[in-house]
Amino acid sequence: MKIVIFIISLNKGGAExxxxxxxxxxxxxxHQITIITCIKARPQYPLDQRIRHICLDEKIxxxxxxxxxxxxxxxxxxxxxxxxxxxDVMLNMLPxxxxxxxxxxxxxxxxxxxxxRCAPEVEYGFLPYKIMxxxxxxxxxxxxxxxxxxxxxxxxxxxxxxxxxxxxxNREAVRESFEGERKKEIVAVGRLAEQKNYPLLIDxxxxxxxxFPEHRLIIYGEGHLRNELETYIKLKGLQNRVILAGQKxxxxxxxxxxxxxxxxxxxxxxxxxxxxxxxxxxxxxATDCLGGGPRSLIKNGYNGxxxxxxxxxxxxxxxxxxxxxxxxxxxxxxxxxxxxTDLKPEKIYRQWGxxxxxxxxxxxxGRRCF
Length: 370
What we know:
Layout: E1 2-7, H1 14-30, E2 32-37, E3 52-55, H2 67-82, E4 89-93, H3 95-102, E5 112-115, H4 120-123, H5 127-136, E6 142-145, H6 148-151, H7 156-159, E7 162-164, E8 183-189, H8 198-208, E9 216-220, H9 226-235, E10 242-246, H10 251-255, E11 258-263, H11 272-279, E12 284-287, H12 293-297, E13 305-307, H13 312-323, H14 326-336, H15 339-342, H16 345-362
Parallel strand pairs: 1-2, 1-4, 2-3, 4-5, 5-6, 6-7, 8-9, 8-11, 9-10, 11-12, 12-13
Helix pairs in contact: 1-16, 3-5, 8-13
């Protein structure tokens, strides 16, 4: 089967990593894969040499153009590429690639699938995006959602054509649970961006730092808010207690022995960082945020704790609650590891492959190439 995958980029990110691993470990073994990206940049994850990679943007910086002009240019280039590309099914990741592909679908019968990767309330909060979603998504032949919460956001016509396939757990995060004395570290992992709401986490830590004077808060990740967060940390007088550690390749080794993992996001799809922390056996706390990702992973009080988004007081109390009770922390961590059974990579990748094949065969009548 010839599969085309269309995504914004192959930079660092959850969707990018899932797609790269899906292709490398499963699809490429049985199918011919072409990945089309909008942004011209070198893939940040290793990509099997058998996979063809095509960029729409002709040069670095094209993505900074006016949105309407950029959309028109990319649509024209996508049309030119697809006219000479044989395929049995096309998988479109995230809104812009989905809009571009579906806007070209009218003349053709190639089956197209849309994969949602984030909180739709945020993705389609921009009115033009919501209008395009309403107009174009009816043309899609299938949808892959990460959670029931995301699925239920969409119109009935979309829900009827949807399946739920969660992310797989990263194999590197699967190891024996740590049994020794944990480091006095509270850790968070993710981009230094507004979505992650690190000021909330810093506020929560500030509310408990005198009670736990030996603990540090370490935030792993990079992003455009670094300077702003450094200033906020100084404002709180926490320069020696809150560390912005940057992006690390050996992140699992670094957080494996930590006392607590916290996710303070305002919205999430199905967060890989949270899944990986649970697979490592860390006690976890997460906001019950838009997108429903943490809610789909955590059974409150059993394998983690959920708190209200934006509530630093409740988050601080939850952190104090876990840090004060080692038996509770151990129980939560032990139960969290059980998530690995349902999210093994081979199981999840098989679901992706089966669904792509199902949609391709269902729509196999008619022309298969542009």
